[in-house]
Amino acid sequence: MNREYFLISLFFAISAIIFYLFFTLILPFFVPIAWAAVFVILSFPLYERVLKRVKKRGLASIIVCLFIIVLIIGPVTYLFIALVNEAADAVTKVNALHQSGQLDELLDFDIPWLNSIRDRLAPYYDISKINLEEIVRDAINRVSGVVISQTTWLIANGTRAFFYFGLMLFAMYYFFKDGEHLVAKIKRLMPLSPKQVNLAFSQLRDVIHATMYGGVVIAVLQGILGGLLFLIMGIPSPVFWGAIMAFLAIIPVVGAFIVYVPAGIILIIGGSYVKGIIVILVGSLVISQTDSVLRPYLISGKTSLHPLLLFFTIMGGIAAFGLLGLVIGPMIAAGFTILLRVFETRLHADELTTDVSPRV
User: Where are the domains of the chain?
Assistant: First the structure.
């Protein structure tokens, strides 16, 4: 008996060492592998359609990878470069306005109803202590600093970035080509019945699609619409502000209105009444309504994550993985909710039967 315990302990010890060594080997390439997985999950329906036509997995994988490069990665790279240029330009303009005193004049407006609110709140808190100029400068410097720092990394590590890009394409090709076989192998390792496993993976796919398409895709569309609106209205740095709107639109509760409403108010205060009203109206009736109009079509019949959970997973994902966390965070949360539901199913099989749909 002691020999049996020793052999079992030795087996688990060796397994732990091997898993640790494997993790150490994969960790340096986590970012390109993760981005490859994200693109594959989002574009796998397209791959299945292409596969039906060409009948060869390898050729279908190459076609979809080329499609992603041309129609997704190419424009994103261009927009990123434009975003960097506009971010640097925004910092320069704000600093110039600050040094000339124009920023203080711009933010020092006299509106009767705001003055009334200020007077009513005066016994409780002196609003005049709030330095709008400092808040604006700090916000723009922080956002621009993140963008510029990422660009500095890319420039300083150009060879490494190019190498990671090649690894991502290489991983995408094999994820498309052999992904179903890999998923089948993972399913065989799950300690559940085949029916439960298939249902769990189906629910996981639905949650990921609902979160990605209902969150990321709609947010990007809102950012594009916001950028176009700012461009048409002649507002400086439309790509920069469009990117900010897209980022804010991803976060639950927060939204693009945090950008376009103040922009409209500033235009009105500055005397551009028509432009300011148009910005607020188009933002409210078109940009913000994009979510309620498109979401039912994109995630029809699928379960998405609870807004509270989505909020914290996006924030935590960004803190842990940077830009990748925007998509990795919700994906991890989706897997976590399914895992909890599987445990619940195992513990209360008589009550839940084979239902493993997430309730979070």
Answer: 27-189, 192-360
